[in-house]
Write a structure and sequence with these properties.
The chain is an alpha+beta fold and 172 residues long. The protein has one domain: SMI1/KNR4-like (3-Layer(aba) Sandwich), CATH 3.40.1580. It is 27% helix and 16% strand. It is built from 5 helices and 7 strands, in the order αβαββααββββα. The mean pLDDT is 83.
């Protein structure tokens, strides 16, 4: 399946809102790891739409979104903020060093897409408070297309959805 198929699926379901596309640069020029490149699927996605979010019904749905291009932020800088410079040398070898926020869940919940060449497009779910802790950040998709499929399924299931049950492993 391709991105066009998934966007049609999201647009046809009443629980989802597909935002209009915008031309925003995804990676800033202050990137700490210049060997990263944006996968074609990500460029195609943001050319086709400006993000996706589900319309939440109280106690019924799981809040999920694919962030707008403006919120596609480098995880270490976004999560660690002001302390990044103090801990930078300690975390440069962490798996999340090449992660960018691609999605949001409930408060303090994120989905990151890995832009490291050896893990390109793998997507991980993490909680703000557990970033970097072993066996707490499940792999939820091996590509952007797979992540879109997972989001469609998750919202259909609602609150009972459990990222850990996907069984794809964890970021270590």
């Amino acid at each position: 399946m391709n991105l066009g198929y998934f966007l049609t699926q999201f647009r046809s379901r009443h629980r989802w809102v597909v935002k209009p596309s915008s031309s925003v640069q995804l990676l800033s020029s202050t990137l700490h790891n210049p060997q990263l490149s944006i996968p074609k699927s990500l460029i195609e996605f943001y050319t086709s739409c400006g993000g996706i979010e589900n319309s939440i019904y109280q106690d019924e749905d799981l809040p999920l979104s694919i962030v707008t291009p403006e919120k596609f932020k480098w995880v270490p800088e976004e999560i660690l903020g002001n302390v990044l410079e103090k801990v930078q040398t300690n975390i440069e070898e962490e798996i999340f060093w090449n992660w960018y926020i691609i999605g949001r869940g409930d408060t303090n919940e994120y989905v990151a897409i890995d832009l490291a060449p050896e893990r390109l497009e793998k997507c991980y779910f993490f909680n703000f408070y557990l970033l970097g802790q072993k066996n707490t950040m499940p792999l939820v998709a091996n590509s952007l297309e797979e992540l879109l499929q997972v989001f469609l399924e998750a919202v259909e299931i609602g609150e009972a959805w459990d990222w850990h049950k996907l069984g794809l492993g964890y970021a270590c």
